[in-house]
Write a structure and sequence with these properties.
This is TetR/AcrR family transcriptional regulator. It comes from Bifidobacterium callitrichidarum. Keywords: DNA-binding, Transcription, Transcription regulation. GO terms for molecular function: DNA binding. The chain is mostly helical. It has a domain of 161 residues: Tetracycline Repressor, domain 2. Helix 1 crosses helix 6, helix 5 crosses helix 6 and helix 7 packs across helix 8.
Length: 257
Amino acid sequence: MAHSSRMTSLQRREQLIAVGRSLFAAKGFEAVSVEEIAAHAKVSKPIVYEHFGGKEGLYAVIVDREMRALTSVLTAALDDPDVHPRRIVERTALALLTYIEENAEGFQVLVRDSPSTDPSGSFSSLLGDISLRVEDILSETFKRQKLSVKGVPYYAQMLVGMTVFTGQYWADRPKVSKEQLAAYIVDLAWHGLSRLNSKPQLLFEGAKAEKRQRKDGGVAATESSEPPESDESVEPTEPAESDGTDEAVPEASPATD
């Protein structure tokens, strides 16, 4: 333990957090013991107890950090409701996937099985908060377009659930880039299954979008209404059927997307 004692108290704490995050991400909360944490950190068990009071305390600190980090990036992505609605969808999907890419272990800790000691600080509570923010944005958009807002809470849950679940799948199978996956998510969310683009692209966010903006003289960078028509799907050839109720959201044409 002589070498490990050279660390300051703060350095030791950060080391234990890093070790704990890695173990909890790989094995889940229940399968990790204080002995294992101490062994990986090359310290004695009392050191772990001294800093965190046990694995529960260490786990709580890790979850709190990851929750704050993820909340920050998602709320920032949703923080400008006056831009084009599609840009909000692109930005939020890309923000979540960037977090997953840069904080793989932290994300695994959040989505793995965890003790139900603090439901208010759980991953599901975070998603609930984000869904409410999405709901507010959708409500304003629907009102501006004279659409019924009755289905908005469900649309918000669909968008958040689809993005998060897909992100979880991608975290274990990162066979496409985060920007390509974000384009898939946005294409489905924006067009629906009937209007999927064969080669979807992000219109506002990401490296390719920035390259197009530079090529077009920066026009797309300040876009607040209509995305470029050339990137939209060429379908459908027939208008979507309506059930005659005000609950149906009319399918927008490329000119109004």
